From TrEMBL:
This is UBX domain-containing protein. PROSITE patterns: UBX. InterPro entries: FAF1_2-like_UAS, Thioredoxin-like_sf, UAS, UBA-like_sf, Ubiquitin-like_domsf, UBX_dom, UBX_domain-protein. One of its GO terms (cellular component) is endoplasmic reticulum. Keywords: Coiled coil, Endoplasmic reticulum. SUPFAM superfamilies: Thioredoxin-like (SSF52833), UBA-like (SSF46934), Ubiquitin-like (SSF54236). It comes from [Myrmecia] bisecta. Residues 307-318 have a biased composition (Basic and acidic residues). CDD domains: UAS, UBA_p47, UBX.
């Protein structure tokens, strides 16, 4: 931590990856950190669910490598130069990568750290070992490319980083099978088609492991290959999550037949299944202790909740009484306020009616004498009372309104005048029209119809 200025978890990771070798751990740190600038992501600590120990599956006879389909003679002849170029480029890149791996392994043990840093920079400039891609995205790219090349009869690769896949295997009490894919290695295609995708291997791996695969061109798989110090491909590792870290159980480097791979995985499961049994027993003990604490906490919470409930009920009863008393007082206050408001409204209405009657009587003037040019108008109020008065035929209908406003006992502030036969309601511009124009001369009966606000 003092030399690299990194957190304890990251320093512990590099030391464990190099079996406690201080120089190698420092060299790996300076190789990895400048490319990523971040610590090794911690493994999720999701508690696993208790299950039965992993039962090994016996190896089954499997078919040989899948034969490639051949096309016509012309297609074969045209493919020869393309395949030769591809194989040549693949061999060159494989040699460069193998040389870089050997140089890293030997130089770390022999050369000083400063010299190794310069050598690694030169090697990376010549051979770009990996690309920085988000681990889950890198896993999706690998799975899609693997399916496009080798079909869907394959192990069920986890679509996540290898750390998350290891955490998932931990929760399911399984080993993690990690496959590191080197696309340019001469044995990769033969191994994937004939061994890794053979029915027996696929069935055994899917039944007993959480499978994860990664292309070493991407950072996640490259860092795993560096920590496992891989020197040959194809590479299959069996990992177990023990305690708070992931450890290597066994590994297969180079090409092997389906039967050999199944036998190797079968021995790894049988020889190291104690990891899973111990982890399951520890998890069951933790679960029991947690359940015991939860039951004690639940009993305490029930007692506490009972006391709180009684206190809450007493407080609610007091609050209810206070609310009822407050509601009664507010209702009485509202009733008194409404009574006073109604009294004021009645007073204002009476004053307005009295003023209207006084003003309209003063403006109305004397009733004209009977004769030609007059109109005898009978007014029927809403209470059934009848009133009659003569007007000049040339008087506007507003004069009749003024007469109605001056009547004693009439309390409607808004109303309109109407006839029954024919039915007609007078309003708006009708008030300025003369009685003769409205056909209310020489006589007519008008009904007063109050208008509600």
């Amino acid at each position: 931590m003092a030399v690299t200025n990194c957190p304890a978890e990251q320093a512990r990771f590099f030391l464990e990856a190099n079996n406690g070798n201080y120089d190698r751990a420092v060299a790996m740190f300076y190789e990895q950190v400048p490319l990523t600038h971040r610590a090794v992501p911690p493994v999720r600590a999701t508690p696993p669910r208790p299950t039965a120990p992993l039962a090994p599956v016996a190896a089954r006879p499997v078919a040989g490598p899948v034969a490639r389909r051949s096309g016509g003679l012309l297609r074969t002849l045209l493919r020869i130069p393309v395949e030769a170029t591809r194989i040549s480029l693949g061999l060159v890149l494989s040699v460069l990568q193998a040389g870089a791996t050997v140089l890293n392994a030997v130089g770390t043990a022999v050369l000083p750290v400063s010299v190794m840093q310069r050598l690694r920079g030169s090697v990376r400039a010549l051979t770009p070992l990996h690309t920085e891609v988000e681990p889950a995205q890198a896993a999706r790219i690998f799975i899609r490319g693997f399916a496009d090349t080798y079909g869907n009869a394959r192990p069920e690769w986890a679509e996540s980083s290898w750390q998350d896949a290891a955490a998932r295997a931990h929760t399911e009490f399984k080993f993690l099978l990690a496959y590191l894919h080197s696309p340019n290695h001469q044995d990769t295609d033969r191994f994937c088609r004939g061994t890794l995708c053979s029915p027996g291997v696929v069935e055994y791996v899917n039944a007993n492991f959480v499978a994860w695969g990664g292309n070493i061109r991407f950072a996640d798989a490259y860092r795993l290959s560096s920590s496992l110090r891989v020197t040959s491909y194809p590479f299959v590792a069996v990992l177990a999550f023990s305690g708070q870290r992931t450890r290597l159980v066994s590994a297969v480097e180079g090409y092997g037949s389906p039967t050999e791979l199944i036998d190797h995985l079968f021995r790894a499961v049988n020889d190291h299944g104690a990891y899973l049994v111990a982890e399951q027993a520890e998890q069951q003990e933790r679960a029991y202790n947690r359940q015991l604490r939860e039951e004690q906490d639940a009993e305490y919470q029930r007692s506490l909740q009972a006391d709180q409930k009684r206190e809450r009920e007493r407080a609610e009863a007091r609050a209810k009484e206070e609310l009822e008393a407050k509601a009664v007082a507010e209702a009485a206050a509202r009733a008194e306020a409404e009574r006073q408001a109604e009294a004021r409204r009645q007073e204002q209405l009476a004053a307005a009616l009295a003023k209207r009657q006084q003003d309209k009587r003063a403006a109305l003037g004397a009733e004209p004498a009977a004769g030609p040019g007059t109109a005898n108008i009978r007014i029927r109020l809403p209470d059934g009372a009848n009133h009659q008065r003569r007007f000049l035929a040339a008087d506007p209908l507003q004069r009749v309104h003024d007469y109605v406003d001056s009547l004693e006992g009439f309390s409607a502030l808004k109303y309109c005048l109407a006839t029954n036969f024919p039915r007609k309601v007078f309003s708006g511009t009708d008030l300025t029209a003369s009685l003769a124009q409205l056909e209310l001369a020489p006589q007519a009966i008008l009904f007063v119809q109050p208008i509600d606000d």
